[in-house]
Amino acid sequence: MSLSGWLPILAGVLAAATPLLIAALGELIAEKSGVLNLGVEGMMLVGALTAFAVASGGAGYAAGALAGALAGVGLAALFAWLTLNCLASQVACGLAITMLGSGLSAYAGRDYVSRTLDGMALIPLGGGFDFDPLIVTGLLLTVLVWYFLQRSRAGLVLRAVGESPATAHALGLPVRRIRWAAVLFGGACAGLAGAYLAIDYTPMWVEGLSAGRGWIALALVVFAGWRPGRTLLGAWLYGGVGILQFHAQALGIAVPAQFLGMLPYLATIVVLTLIARDPLTQRRHTPASLGQPWHPHA
Q: Among candidates 46, 43, 47, which has minimal Cα distance to 30?
């Protein structure tokens, strides 16, 4: 196949990887602070519906993307209050947020079903190449998260909180506020990832638009060992597997469409199984306090 034939496939991989990348980077920051948020799927759905409603109402795509991110922040704030202030189970609350987001988006989105949008305008890069602004956002976000975690004092503080909140508190660090900020950032990323799906990748609204991508983003964080660079590579890998179903016939692959459709989820199961076989490596990279409730007076 010529280069011109591969370019649409490469562009499709980048597009398919973007919602996974953005959502996974947000969850990575939350988990680095020691908070496990299983509500990413619900936040993506609410962000998707909010973005679609705002954009289809004539406010514009940028406003829609911002609204989607803020919707994710709203659900993240509810999750943070329940888990960080009320010390409720992070696992239970995350699952509840996913169910809430799924039900709320399905109910509130009834009037938007099957409506379509034109999609966001591309950014001209010169030389005949155009790029999607939210794809660029995902790539820039990867660099910023890497720099934040590896090169900034704030990133060091975040990692310290995730490793030992009691020690961080003893040193005078505002553990709860840091975890709140990390969770809200994760919610904003999940909402933005959902917004990308609704107003750009597949610019229409259907119930369950995220189609399990929130769960794949969660698995991607573990697959990447809580490292931004590997998260990017993992998102491209999953994006490539996901986009294969759309190009299989053009490549002469005679495989049922249903099988190709399940490949991203099958890949998730395989990756998690392989990771589970090496618990020592997993423990070395997992934030020590991940999923554990903490209170300053405990």
A: 43
pTM strictly above 0.85: yes
| Count of C-beta atoms within a 10 Å radius of residue 250 | 11
Nearby residues of 261 by Cβ (< 8 Å), 6 or more positions away: 245
DSSP 74-124: HHHHHHHIIIIIS---HHHHHHHHHHHHHHHHHHHTGGGBT-B---PPPEE
| DSSP character at residue 205 | B
Q: What is the pLDDT of residues 153-197, one digit of tens each?
A: 999 999 999 999 999 999 999 999 999 999 999 999 999 999 999
- Provide the 3-class DSSP secondary structure of residue 204: strand
158: helix, strand or coil: helix
- Using the structure block, give the residue that is written with the tokens 């016939």: 249
How does 57-73 read in b/e, with b if 16+ C-beta sit within 10 Å?
eeeebeebbbbbbbbbb
Q: Which residues contact 95 (CB under 8 A, 6 or more apart)?
A: 38, 39
Span 95-121, pLDDT tens digits: 999 999 999 999 999 999 888 888 788
- Phi-psi category of residue 204: left, alpha or beta, with phi > 0 → left and psi -120 to 50 → alpha: beta
